Amino acid sequence: MNEKYVPYRGYDAPYIFVSYAHKDGNKASEVIEKLQMEQYRVWYDEGIDPGTEWDENIAEHIENCEYFIALLSREYLVSSNCKDELNFARELEKPRLLIYLEDIQLPGGMRMRLSRLQAIHKYKYQSMELFFEKLAETQGLEKCHEKQKQEKTIIIESTEVVQETPRITIPRQGYPYPVKSGDTVYLGKALPGFFLAEGEDLAWRVLNCEDRKAVLLCENVLLNMPYHAVQHGSSDWENCTLRKWLNNDFYEQVFSDSEKEYILWRAHPSRNNPKYRTPGGADTIDPVFLLDVIELTVYGFEQITEIARNNGNISWWLRNPGFSQNFAMNFGWRVHYGGLQVDEPAVGVRPAIVIQTR
């Protein structure tokens, strides 16, 4: 794929999932890049860390997509991964479009299952422009594009308080030093009861830095604490006691007033468990949060694994639910999708924040 175009990152806004065989990369990129040039949000599996949980990552993106496009070819028909993606989209009853990259005959069973879907035979069009005119007219894609255009990105331009969320303000200044992905920065002081000495500077790894915003993950598991401190209780991320502690006692006591000036209050999606489909609950807006399983991949699974290894692979909470809301997912040397009981006290806390940079 052209380096100029990258997959849509996120789940909050409507996006299109494009399924294609990797051997058709050049043909697929022509379609994907045209969609992106026309301001469609597109997700495809370019750049996923192939080391871990590939299936869960793909399934999560299909589950959350607004529209599913399959780029059919001879290579697609012999790819078990491609057929799995198409079947999963069918099971979820996602709106689907078939684009034939070449003249092929579908097997009987597949032809029967797909006969009612909209289809465009790209190879019959003499130019990309004529093909895309037809593509843009398809009913499902047109509806998807309307949703994408209506979806508004919330940008807070000033320090005025927003009425619906009165504590959200944009920092008046950015972090005073230049940062880049992979750097370590120091913000905040350790509190009594942390695994660090009281008053020690907290180290944060820069997982991602773009658009003058840097995502930071604490390099240390700071202490052990239940996800939800109610015996035999259940909770989602929005309502758990750990979230309340992180965004009250932790935020207020760990960071100085000047440091709070460049810590951003950000919206964080509460995604379902990608394996067990346990509901994640409502999205939240917080300055301090826990990573979720998708962010492990988006922000660099290998780097996060290395950070965990430096702490002896102590298990620490993720914000996703486990196989029920009595459990929450955790990460040590690997992702534990079933999770641990939310009132388990011997699980680590490794917070994350987003800061404004200059």
Unreliable runs? 47-52, 152-172
Largest sheet geometry: 5 strands, parallel
Work out the radius of gyration: 22 Å
Question: DSSP strand (E) fraction?
Answer: 15-25%
Shape: elongated
Strand order of the largest sheet: 2-1-3-4-5
Instruction: Enumerate how many helices there are, as a single number.
Output: 11
Question: Structural class, from helix and strand content?
Answer: alpha/beta
| Order of helical and strand elements | EHEHEHHEHEHHEEEEHHEEEHHEEEEE
Number of strands: 17
Mean pLDDT: 85
Distance between the termini: 31 Å
* Structural domains: how many: 2
- Which percent bin holds the helix content? 25-40%
Keywords: Receptor
Pfam families: DUF6273, TIR_2
InterPro entries: DUF6273, TIR_dom, Toll_tir_struct_dom_sf
Protein name: Toll/interleukin-1 receptor domain-containing protein
Give a quick set of tags describing it.
358 residues, alpha/beta, Rossmann fold, 2 domains, five-stranded parallel beta sheet, 11 helices, 17 strands, Toll/interleukin-1 receptor domain-containing protein
Q: Short description, anyone?
A:
This protein has 358 residues and is an alpha/beta fold. Helices cover 29% and strands 22% of the residues.
Describe this structure in words.
With 358 residues, the protein is an alpha/beta fold. The protein folds into two domains: 135 residues, 3-Layer(aba) Sandwich (Rossmann fold); 173 residues, no CATH class. Helices cover 29% and strands 22% of the residues. The strands form five sheets. It has a five-stranded parallel sheet with strand order 2-1-3-4-5, sandwiched between helices. Strands 6-7-8-17-12 form a five-stranded antiparallel sheet. The chain has a three-stranded antiparallel sheet with strand order 13-14-15, with no helix packed on it. The longest helix is centred in the last third of the chain and has 14 residues. About 8% of the residues have low confidence.
